[in-house]
Amino acid sequence: MILSLDMSSDVPIYVQLRNQIVTGIGKGELKAGESLPSVRQMAQDAGINSMTVNKAYQILKAEGFIEIDRRKGATVRPVQQTTGIFREKLESELELLSAEACLKGIRREEFLDICDRIFCTMHAAESEVTP
Amino acid sequence: MILSLDMSSDVPIYVQLRNQIVTGIGKGELKAGESLPSVRQMAQDAGINSMTVNKAYQILKAEGFIEIDRRKGATVRPVQQTTGIFREKLESELELLSAEACLKGIRREEFLDICDRIFCTMHAAESEVTP
Amino acid sequence: MILSLDMSSDVPIYVQLRNQIVTGIGKGELKAGESLPSVRQMAQDAGINSMTVNKAYQILKAEGFIEIDRRKGATVRPVQQTTGIFREKLESELELLSAEACLKGIRREEFLDICDRIFCTMHAAESEVTP
Amino acid sequence: MILSLDMSSDVPIYVQLRNQIVTGIGKGELKAGESLPSVRQMAQDAGINSMTVNKAYQILKAEGFIEIDRRKGATVRPVQQTTGIFREKLESELELLSAEACLKGIRREEFLDICDRIFCTMHAAESEVTP
DNA sequence: GTGGTCTAGACCACG
DNA sequence: GTGGTCTAGACCACC
């Protein structure tokens, strides 16, 4: 998985890291059960502080995307069940994106095409099909 | 337009304000040409500092959503043309949302249903359709 | 002379007005001795407050670009002598523009070409040649 | 780099600051990659509020002249590519300056001499020439 | 009336 | 250490 961190972005590095790992899992670049690099390794590779990596990992763990085991390190968890909280967050963010898109002149069909095209690049659910 | 600001959120107040105004315009609660409350009025109503409101307004102006006129205060601008930069931002955010949704077990049809349902609550384009 | 005022610009209207009149005189659209519209006329044409027009005219008068006579109204003055103060202001503004251009990758030849091309659209000096 | 802020000028302090930093970079007093003083340091040195400095830095960042890194503070960015928008702004400002110069009796050769002399004090491009 | 600028000082998030 | 946010209140420019 390739990371691209923008040090001068206003998005905190640990959030960028968290987002890219989530996207990586979603796209199937990281499959359920696979290991993530150790905190130190990741920090060294990305040229950032290990506390920053640790923070990203802790968030991913709290969100249920990964498991952290003292012996095996961090591993990807299989797909979870939707929670009401997540749906609320999803709808709220989609509402904002929809409003922005609408105000930028994007029409319904085009918006849905984009949503569809992008969702179709996700493959994580496969990890459930093969038990 | 009803505002609900969460003072203890880690999302800055001016960003919350900006987001809610964008959503409000998108939903048609504020139509093209309509005035927003003056900086001071909005600050008083929301119980926040006027510089915070000002910052939100400046961002909305820079993004092309509103105009700020020395005489009339802030007014909503009509729908604009999509830019390549916006599409990139949109796709990047949708990619993250898709990944999260996918990992939370939401399937393609359901995701698209949500996208469609939410986009359909937007009405801003009407300001162009009606002559 | 065509005026284009941007009400939502951060440049005050009276400054925009002053600038456009100066440019108009420089380009020869208004020649020495010619009359400017009356304050009221200009205000009505431009859809702005007459105090705003008055302010612009007073500045142009103070700068020596026009004369204001109670009977004849405002008229364009002929070319004046350079003052040290003006040269300082000119050099200071050119320094900033040069720095910006340089940092945007514009090279010396190109910069001078632009300066030359634009200066050549000015014709006001002619009003001196014909005595 | 020496700053001279005029507190009684009608040009906002943050604009004066921004202009002087741009000029400083253009003249090569600040080279690409070099650090600017921290917001607080600059504020203390200049005897102004840190939010004022922050505002100037944010503008410079938005204009592409500097980068702001959470770790290193603000650093000078290398020379960029010209954009159409910048050329328009440059030509519009040069048109006004040309008109003023012309009306103050400055002739073409003299104007170009001044432009050339001033542009030649800029050295920022060097950061690209030297490998 | 409007927005824009500036201050002094507090508090927080990031790394 | 760094920048970012927010406040309360003052003052100014514009129209």
Describe the structure.
Four copies of one chain form a homotetramer. By secondary structure, chain A is mainly α. Chain A is about 55% helix and about 5% strand. Chain A has helices spanning about 15-25, 40-45, 50-60, 85-105, 110-120, 125-130; strands spanning about 65-70, 75. The first copy, chain A, has a two-stranded antiparallel ribbon with strand order 1-2. In chain A, helix 1 crosses helix 3 and helix 2 (about 40-45) crosses helix 3 (about 50-60). The longest helix of chain A has 20 residues, at about 85-105. The radius of gyration of chain A is 17 Å and the shape is globular. Chains in contact: A-B, A-D, B-C, C-D. The structure holds a DNA duplex (15 and 15 nucleotides).
